[in-house]
Amino acid sequence: MAEAPPIRESMDYDVVIVGGGPAGLAAAIRLKQLDMEISVCVLEKGSEIGAHILSGAVLDPKALNELIPDWKDKGAPLDTPVSDDRFCFFTKGGAFAIAHFLFPPLMSNRGNYIVSLSTLCKWLGQQAEALGVEIYPGFPAHDLIVEDGAVKGVITGDLGVAKDGHRKDSYTPGMELRGKYTLFAEGARGSLSKILGAKFGLQEGRQPQKFGIGLKELWELPAGQHKKGLVLHGMGWPLDNETGGGLFMYHWGDNFCSVGFVVHLNYKNPWLDPFGEFQRAKTHPAIAKILTGGKRIGYGARAITEGGFQSVPKLSFPGGVLIGCAAGFVNLPRIKGSHNAMKTGMLAAEAAAAALKAGRAGDMLSDYDAAYAKSWVARDLKLVRNAKPLWSKLGTLLALPFIGLDLWTNSLFGLSLFGTLGHGEPDFATLRPAKVSPKIAYPRPDGHLTFDRLSSVFLSSTNHEEDQPVHLVLKDPAIPISLNLPEYAEPAQRYCPAGVYEVIQESSGPRFQINAQNCVHCKTCDIKDPSQNINWVTPEGGGGPNYANM
Ligand SMILES: Cc1cc2nc3c(=O)[nH]c(=O)nc-3n(C[C@H](O)[C@H](O)[C@H](O)COP(=O)(O)OP(=O)(O)OC[C@H]3O[C@@H](n4cnc5c(N)ncnc54)[C@H](O)[C@@H]3O)c2cc1C
Ligand code: SF4
In this predicted model, what pLDDT tens digit does every residue of 242-254 receive, in sequence order? Predict the structure, then answer.
């Protein structure tokens, strides 16, 4: 017998915010700063604020200065100013420093801070709560409430549903959180933002959004190897010339070192394994000498938006807006998006507060689109708009001088010799067939400098209730074996940084297995699956990684 539709409790707010990252929390704080009477709630799928936040991170404090000018007095966790900023091109055994004068001042990290973004978000959450914002960690927004063509809020995920879909004794239906306006701050490839994009045609007339996968480890270094304030960026080896990406290494705190690797998700070779590339990158002599003798204490991965200026979607739709990386405001050559996420959250908050003051509800916050277009976020993104397309079209070596030239002409004269380049095809469409692509041999992990996936996932403290529906939903369960395996050697086995996807060889033939409990919510599968067959939906509340200091 079919189960009766759930009876849901409902709560009303002026503004509902989906996602407790820098964008969502900055929006919440700004709303309360503008009018303490505005009721605001923030939903966060992680078990606590910051639990799902993974970033580099070098923070440009520009937006924080505007939001909370006395952040130093209030104890914001920005303790490591950048003191040394290096950029290298790696070959297999060598490293060539690239002089700073080759890039315009916009690339400089002077005045920036090395932070843990998850720790900063915890602090922002405390600031928001002190202003009266209601924060609900462990509550993923699972569905949209759409009435009369407008978004009226969201429904949180049901609790206590078994793997086969039946309701367990612990079943608790999700709640309706209704808002006069709903701000979507889900970060890169938000599950509801994706639906909103399709429903309201937000990407029409824009270039496709582009992404990278960022993998990161947190290390504790021996005293002599830790150089507090050092920022190191590298490109080149181990990636080949046609694959974009690179390494970052930030020394902060007393002995912390954040080391990570980004692979652009428009890579072509289905044999490529971003996790394997990251592990290899750490064996470069220039990196290995810093990490050797240290201890790895954290691991995680997250998609990063890379489309920039020409991929920013229409931001508003009836009843809501996209803010932060849900819309994709990362400045790719600077590898920075947190300040833009915060600023766009603040701009949306200002538009929402003005609308509420005027007695409006559920309409378009078009003032936010206009404010973004006039903001320093749009100005900065425009200056660097051709970096990603040049990199994709020319390959790393040839692109570097052209990107340098383009950044200079944009910075000095406000113009580009290239106009505004397009990105070409979306990331899921770039793979070549496996049979015409060279296989890549990755060395075995040594357990000191390089590791396997499962011991890595262990360090992310990822946890999901086992008896729940799989949150990686295959539109067609046959495709991984019938199409992806013969054509692309099922790349999910390699691009997933958490070992969620496996092809098991059985006597009856290959079988596709999904180990959903390992998922670190990076969203790469939703982006890169060549058949666009994997739909990432929110799992039961609180599930996922539990990042600390990431
Ligand atoms: C490897 C890497 C390195 C980076 N390095 C830097 C750097 O050095 N400097 C810099 O400025 N930027 C950096 N960035 C980019 C920066 O992290 C992002 O621009 C920034 O985090 C975007 O903030 P956001 O609030 O939009 O999204 P996020 O930080 O992704 O936060 C989104 C939040 O929403 C929650 N959420 C998502 N969906 C739901 C839902 N349906 N219901 C409830 N909650 C939900 C998530 O759990 C998360 O807490 C880096 C990114 C990566 C991946
Ligand atoms: S299953 Fe998808 S979202 Fe989860 S870790 Fe793997 S690639 Fe990332």
Answer: 999 999 999 999 9
CB contact burial 214-229 (16+ within 10 A = b; e otherwise)? bbbbbbebeeebbebb
The percent of residues in the chain predicted with pLDDT above 70, rounded, is: 100
- Structural tokens at position 23: 């964008």
Q: Give the model confidence (pLDDT) of 170-229 as tens digits.
A: 999 999 999 999 999 999 999 999 999 999 999 999 999 999 999 999 999 999 999 999
534 ligand 2 Cβ < 6 A: no
- The reported pLDDT for the residue numbered 264 is 98
- Ligand 1 and 189: CB distance under 6 A: no
Q: Enter the DSSP assignment of 490.
A: -
What is the spatial distance between Cα 502 and Cα 499, in angstroms, rounded to a whole number?
A: 7
Rounded CA-CA distance 247/281 in Å is: 7
Q: What's the pLDDT score for residue 215?
A: 98
- Decide whether any atom of ligand 1 lies within 6 Å of the 190 Cβ: yes
Greatest C-alpha distance within the chain: 71
Q: Is the CB of 522 under 6 A from ligand 2?
A: yes
- Give the number of residues written for the chain: 550
Q: How remote is the CA of residue 440 from the centroid of ligand 1, in Å? A: 30
Ligand 2 centroid vs 522 CA: distance in angstroms?
Answer: 5
pLDDT band at 335 (very low <50, low <70, confident <90, very high): very high
φ and ψ at 298, to 5 degrees? -150, 155
Which pTM was predicted? 0.98
536 lines ligand 2 (CB under 6 A): yes
In the block, tokens 């297995």 appear at 513
**What distance in Å separates the CA atoms of residue 462 and residue 521, rounded to the nearest whole number?**
10
> What is the torsion angle, in degrees rounded to the nearest 10, for the CA atoms of residue 373, residue 428, residue 466 and residue 17?
10
C-alpha of residue 203 to centroid of ligand 1, in Å:
20
Q: Of the ligands numbered here, which is closest to the C-alpha atom of 323? A: 1
User: Separation of 299 CA from ligand 2 center, angstroms?
Assistant: 14
Q: What is the number of the ligand 2 atom nearest to the C-alpha of 522?
A: 8
Cβ-contact 3, 168 below 8 angstroms: no
The bound ligand whose nearest atom lies closest to the alpha carbon of 527 is 2
Q: How far is the CA of 232 from the centre of ligand 1 (A)?
A: 21
Q: Please compute the mean of the pLDDT values over residues 421-449 and round it to a whole number.
A: 97
Q: Do 78 and 71 form a contact (C-beta atoms < 8 A)?
A: yes
Query: Does the C-beta of 525 come closer than 6 Å to ligand 2?
Result: yes
Summarize the confidence of residues 157-161 as an average pLDDT.
Answer: 95
> What local confidence, expressed as pLDDT, does residue 103 receive?
85
Confidence of residue 141 (pLDDT cuts 50, 70, 90): very high
- Closest Cα to atom 11, ligand 1: which residue? 336
- For residue 1, the model assigns a pLDDT of 61
* 248: enclosing H helix or E strand: strand 245-252
Q: Write the DSSP symbol of residue 232.
A: E
Instruction: For the chain, count helices (H), then strands (E).
Output: 16, 24
Nearest CA to ligand 2 atom 4: 519
SS (H, E, C) 447-478: CCCCCCHHHHHHHCCCECCCCCCCCEEECCCC
